[in-house]
Design goal:
The protein is of the alpha+beta class and 534 residues long.
């Protein structure tokens, strides 16, 4: 369960996720201005809602958070996360839904009673660094909270932002990380998947700010039509995907977004809208959320589906129509007269006749949220997620949801296969710097599955790939692909003089001309090697 301020809703949002299914995604608008203190709350069960300062801003379906019994004995309550620019003063959890008048207002202190399971005001902190603990006013389990190193204790509570680490804007932060391209997700338009926006002034200002910092911006597009779009009553019946398992998306501003088939007239509308968008605003590319693969469709109004021997209509895949649409989108980018980027989010649908027009594909979201520890078999990764066999650069996607795999595990798996994890930009930033410093663009990648004449021996369970420059200098990617730590010797055919961690610069132990260290499970070891010279 998540409860957070969402940029798409422009307000508070509640999410229930159970297994691989999102059972509830619901929000209410709330224009939270910087510096304003508010008490936000949500209740669930028979009386469910989202509240700000005792006022209900959204009603939630009367449904439990879980469909069945769930063991919460090892559950983790986490405050903050990526880009969490908030100070949290207090948190309370109760064993019953309280009335709106008892949910708190502004910065007034919350109180504990017999229904309080947890109340922490973060005013009893002990320890230092990563060993700081918060003793709650009341906690049913008798435990304590733990503060990570990035959290600062301030007069108003816990500062979950980057704090003193960086004083500039978010774009300045991206620039300092060395990012070259920014992906602007769906909320640049008020209508899902729509090639126009009512936020023209704001979009133009954001694109200018990105370009002024020497970066590029790609904008989100998808095969979807909102029921709030002017074209909805004219286009939906002819253009929608007809299929029992079709997914209808919802977002803020309040709308239902219907899947659209590439074989329909909407393909013309989308291509025309994209061309006008690039002409008016000058973005630098397209982030495709599904543009590259056709779904099943049986809508006879645009020619999909067929009548089977059973007399029923069955779906078809409009592969060639999707390919033609992708070709048009790529041609629009070619007309821009500047470097552009066309990234296609695929989620397992590697459709090469359409992806041939993309610059890169993004894969892996369909694996996120799997029970831990989730491991992609190495041979499966080489087939689907690596891209070398397709001739199309591949990006891997990892979400840190304390399920499936962590960003560090995703980095280890991906870099072992010469694959990026660019959506985990803070994790990739030191890798980009290491690649640039080493000169990876001029190096040859040699994977662990290939002949490696430079390698003599590795510890059991450790796989080693490498970037090899023309002058013979090497950067190793070593990963322990077992579930237990391994300490041992990694030896090259030539003696090693020194080794340092390419991401941190820290020295790595060398003994008798070989690397001697501990390899933790599924952890990236990116090693810059200096070999002995006669």
């Amino acid at each position: 369960m998540w409860f957070y301020w969402n940029q798409d809703d422009r307000g508070m949002r509640v999410v229930y996720r159970e297994g691989n299914q999102y059972r509830l995604v619901h929000g209410g608008r709330f224009a939270w201005q910087p510096g304003e203190p508010h008490t936000v709350a949500c209740t669930w069960g028979e009386t469910s809602g989202i509240f700000v300062d005792g006022q209900q801003i959204a009603e939630l379906p009367a449904t439990p958070a879980f469909t069945g019994a769930v063991d919460l004995s090892a559950a983790v309550l986490k405050l903050g996360g990526a880009d969490s620019d908030f100070v949290v003063r207090q948190i309370r959890i109760s064993d019953l839904p309280r009335p709106a008048t008892a949910l708190g207002v502004g910065e007034a202190a919350l109180l504990a009673d017999e229904h309080t399971l947890l109340l922490d005001r973060f005013d009893d902190i002990s320890g230092a660094g990563a060993d700081r603990l918060s003793r709650p006013v009341r906690i049913a389990s008798g435990g304590q909270g733990k503060l990570t190193e990035g959290v600062r204790v301030v007069a108003d509570g816990l500062d979950l932002s980057r704090g003193d680490a960086f004083k500039g804007t978010l774009l300045d932060y991206f620039q300092e990380l060395g990012l070259k391209t920014i992906g602007f997700h769906e909320h640049w338009s008020e209508l899902q998947g729509f090639p126009r926006t009512m936020y023209g002034k704001e979009l133009r200002a954001v694109l200018k700010a990105i370009h002024d910092r020497g970066m590029r911006a790609i904008l989100y597009h998808s095969w979807q039509l909102s029921d709030t779009a002017p074209e909805y009553p004219l286009y939906l019946r002819e253009c929608e995907v007809i299929e029992p398992n079709r997914f209808i998306y919802t977002r803020e501003p309040k709308q239902k977004d219907y899947p659209i088939c590439a074989r329909s007239a909407w393909g013309d509308f989308l291509a025309d809208g994209m061309q006008r968008l690039f002409r008016e605003f000058g973005p630098d590319g397209i982030y495709s959320d599904g543009l590259s693969y056709p779904g099943e469709c049986s809508n006879e109004l645009h020619g999909c589906g067929y009548i089977g021997e059973d007399g029923k209509r069955h779906p078809t895949f409009s592969l060639f129509a999707c390919r033609e649409a992708m070709k048009r989108f790529a041609h629009i980018l070619e007309q821009q007269g500047k470097p552009t980027l066309f990234v296609c989010h695929t989620s397992g649908a590697i459709t090469l006749p359409t992806l041939a027009f993309a610059d890169a594909y993004l894969d892996g979201e369909h694996l996120c949220g799997q029970p831990r520890p989730f491991r992609v078999p190495l041979d499966s990764f080489r087939v689907e997620f690596m891209g070398h066999n397709f001739g199309i650069p591949a990006y891997f996607l990892v979400y840190d949801w304390l399920r499936g795999m962590t960003t560090e595990e995703g980095l280890a798996l991906s870099l072992l296969h010469d694959t990026e994890v660019p959506w985990s930009y803070e994790g990739m930033a030191p890798v980009y710097r290491a690649w640039d410093d080493f000169g990876a663009d001029d190096a040859r990648f040699e994977g662990y599955w290939q002949e490696r004449p430079w390698l003599r021996s590795t510890p059991p369970g450790v796989e080693v790939s490498a970037y090899v420059r023309p002058d013979g200098e090497m950067m190793l990617v070593a990963v322990n692909v077992t579930e237990e730590p391994v300490r041992g010797t990694l030896a090259l055919t030539e003696r090693v003089e020194s080794v340092r961690d390419a991401r941190t610069g820290a020295a790595v132990p060398v003994a008798d001309g070989a690397i001697q260290t501990e390899f933790r499970p599924w952890t990236l070891n990116l090693l810059r090697v200096k070999r002995e010279t006669e």
